[in-house]
């Protein structure tokens, strides 16, 4: 990843997949369902690291609720 992209906290699709631990197909699905925002550029999709981190936090919160259902 280039220094400029790192400074802006932008990630290309490959970096975003690695960051989240998803396959490209899974990430494409989540983008299509508008669960993860991205911007389309002439070079491909780019993601804000902040958006990926927010998605990951919300995903972890949902997992906690599934493990500990209210009685």
Question: Mind telling me the C-alpha Rg?
Answer: 14 Å
| Annotation, overall tally of beta strands | 3
Strand content: 15-25%
Kindly identify the CATH topology.
Multidrug-efflux Transporter Regulator, Chain: A, Domain 2
Strand order, biggest sheet?
Answer: 1-3-2
Helix percent band: 55-70%
The total of helices stands at 4
Quote the average pLDDT: 86
Strand and helix order: HEHHEEH
Could you explain the architecture of this structure?
It is a single chain. This protein is an alpha+beta fold and 71 residues long. The chain has one domain: Multidrug-efflux Transporter Regulator, Chain: A, Domain 2 (Orthogonal Bundle), CATH 1.10.1660. Helices cover 58% and strands 15% of the residues. It has 4 helices and 3 strands. The protein has a 3-stranded antiparallel sheet. Strand 2 and strand 3 form a beta hairpin. 10% of the residues are buried. The mean pLDDT is 86.
Secondary-structure blueprint of this entry?
Elements: H1 3-7, E1 10-12, H2 13-20, H3 24-32, E2 39-41, E3 44-48, H4 49-67
Antiparallel strand pairs: 1-3, 2-3
Short recap of the structure:
This protein is an alpha+beta fold. The protein has four helices and three strands; from the N terminus they run H-E-H-H-E-E-H.
Features:
single chain, 71 residues, alpha+beta, Multidrug-efflux Transporter Regulator, Chain: A, Domain 2, three-stranded antiparallel sheet, 4 helices, 3 strands, globular
């Amino acid at each position: 990843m280039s220094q400029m992209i790192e400074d802006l906290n932008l990630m290309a699709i490959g970096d975003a997949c690695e960051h989240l631990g998803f396959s490209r197909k899974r990430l494409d699905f989540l983008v299509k369902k508008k669960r993860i925002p991205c911007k389309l550029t002439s070079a491909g999709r780019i993601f804000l690291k902040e958006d990926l981190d927010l998605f990951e936090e919300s995903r972890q919160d949902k997992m906690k609720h599934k493990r500990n259902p209210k009685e």
